[in-house]
Every structure is written in C-alpha cells, then in structure tokens.
Predict the 3D structure of the following.
Amino acid sequence: MKILVLNAGSSSQKSCLYDLNGDSLPSSPLEPIWEAAIDWGMPPFGEMKVKANGVKSESKIDSEQKAEAIGKMLNSLIEGETKVLNSLGEINVVGHRVVHGGTDYSRATIIDEQVKEAIARLIPLAPAHNPSHLQGISAIEKVLGNVPQVAVFDTAFHSQMPLYAAVYPIPYEWFTKGIRRYGFHGTSHKYCGQRAAQLIGKPLESLRLITCHLGNGCSLAAIRDGISVNTTMGFTPLEGLMMGTRSGSIDPAILIFLMREYGWDSDRLNQMLNQQSGLKGITGISGDMRYVQEEQNSGNERAILAFEMFIHRLRTGIGSMLASLGGLDGLVFTAGIGEHAGLVRQETCKDFEFIGLKLDPDKNRNIKGDGNIAASDSQVPIFVIHTEEDWAIATECWHLLKS
C-alpha cells in the first residue's frame, strides 16, 4: 500500500510517501521512500526541497501559487532523479494532518464533503492551519482525482477528556456553543505515548504518562487508561506553556486593559499573542531556543530570563498534569526542543526528584534516537522520543483501508 502524507503548516507544506507491504504493520516506523517540503518563505518566492533515491533537489517556486506548487511537488514522484513511481495512480491513499476537528471527529476519518465543511467551519479556531489543509485536499483532488483521502485530527486524541478538564469556568452556555478545551498536538502525543509503552514493555492502557511536545509550539498531555485526560493547549493552540512566539496562558484581564487603556483591537492582540510573544517577546529578537541558549551562554540577561521563564512554566505545567494522574510511570520529551535541548530536559527534571524522577547527566548529553535518560536509581523512566507524526498518519490510513 502506497500512502502519501501531507502535513501542512502555516508557512510550510511537508509531504512523504510510505510503501507498506504485507498484512501487518512493522513494530517500528519505516523510512519514507520519498520526502518533500515546501517553505513558502517571503513572497514572491518559496523553496521546495525533495529527497528520494539518495538524491536531494532544491528549486524556487511562486509563493503566490500554492496549489500549483503542490502539483509540482507531486510531479517529483514520477519525474527526474527523485522518481519513485511510474504514475501517480499508484498512490492508494492520502493522509492529511488536520489541526482542528472540533468535537465532530474523535478519530481518523475518510474525507468527504461533510468533513471538508467541518474543516472550513473551524477556520476561525485555527486560521493559520485549517485553510492550508483544505488547500492540500483540493490540490490532491485536482491531481489524483477520487483517491481516498483521510483526515487525521490533532484534536482527536484529546476528545475523551473528562468534562471537568474540558469545560471552562465561564457561563455554561458557551460550552454548549463549542467553547471548550480541545487540545492539540494529539497525533504526536498519541504516538509518543504508544512508543513509551513499547519501550517500557507494558500496555499503554496500564500506564500513567506525561508527554512533553516542545517545539515552536509547546504542549503537555496527561495520558491515563490510554487516553488524554488533560492537556495544556485549549480552545486554541495559544493556551498553556510559553512557546516560541506564543504567550501561552496569561491573565485575560491584560487584554481588557490593553483594549480599554490603549485602544488595541482584536487583530493587534492576536498578532501580539501569537507572533510577538513567548521566547521572542522576552528576547526581543528570536523565538528559537537555540538562539536563546547561545545568548544565555553569552550573558544576555533577557535570554537568561526567557529561558528561566520557559522552564518555570514547563515545570508548573508538568505539575498540573501530574495532579491529573495521581502518579507517574513515565515522562516523555519530544519535538525539536524536547529531543535536542539537553539543558531544557536537565533543568526541567531536577526539581522533581521528590517523586522519584532522576535524570542521568551522561545519558541526557549523549542520547541518540529513542531512549531512557533516567538514572539507574530513578523510580520513573525519562524518555526522549523522536515524534513520528507522518508515520502515525500513515498507520491511521493503513488501518482505515484495511478495516
């Protein structure tokens, strides 16, 4: 079964192709036979990179013609040195990561008109992502016709959260109108929970885990009985932890104050909270943790403050997830910061030794791939896991078509 995965972001389009043979899935993720990424960049040009057959190619694209660019990307599957298919008709199914599925969808779903309408209806809750998902779906319809397409929703894994965690303490009528905690990064949290269970050697349903997805966007999930029972992101991906350019949770009265005293409107508030806050807001320059750590080592006081704030809010978030579990069988770090920033893992873990969680400094420095970086006398394993969102999407497609 040849499965094409499209993972659309607000400023990028990543894609890969898996070739799954046999009647069962392998125990570990396969490498895709083809990978491509489009960075829309700054108009008028974006950049497309393709990798297959040991060959890498790069080309400029018109960033104002996104649908056409996706078609050009797909053509690299059947043309030139990156050719891996004789025709696009060999593709059996296309899986899409979709950020927001609201309360409508709690599992991967074959895309039809109703699903597309739901994705469109939820654009106000994910304005930077859901339009890109629809664009990708439309491009596939244009190029591949009636090939089955599957939506894998980031919100799905959190859909079984208990109401006491999902409902906000505002008038209940707003909950009935759809204002509730949805949670995001669900595909990553689910995969990392399953992978941690595999490393521990026990069923996921028997474990209490906290998964830390730390990248430009950051969120935590408390996993118990195989489901997410609490998470830090909420109605939108803005709530929760301090992030690269997003504020995370702040006193909502700050926004009222800025509106009343300074005349700020919703667009300006949205711009500040999503693109000018977080690490970038404190450093004044960049939301990249690598920059923060470099400047921190140089004695930059604002970088030091940004790092300390990030760790403080991360520890506080882990504490809240711990309270939702009543115990802990594993702590997982994943995504760009989680996988590569050893100092973040070190500083996060050091104040949790009172619950039996103890990190091994050497393992933490030298970890490669998935593994346990806990000390030998730690009562709780600490995992670094490479998140495999694309593989998780591919396996969801495989299960749907096999059922």
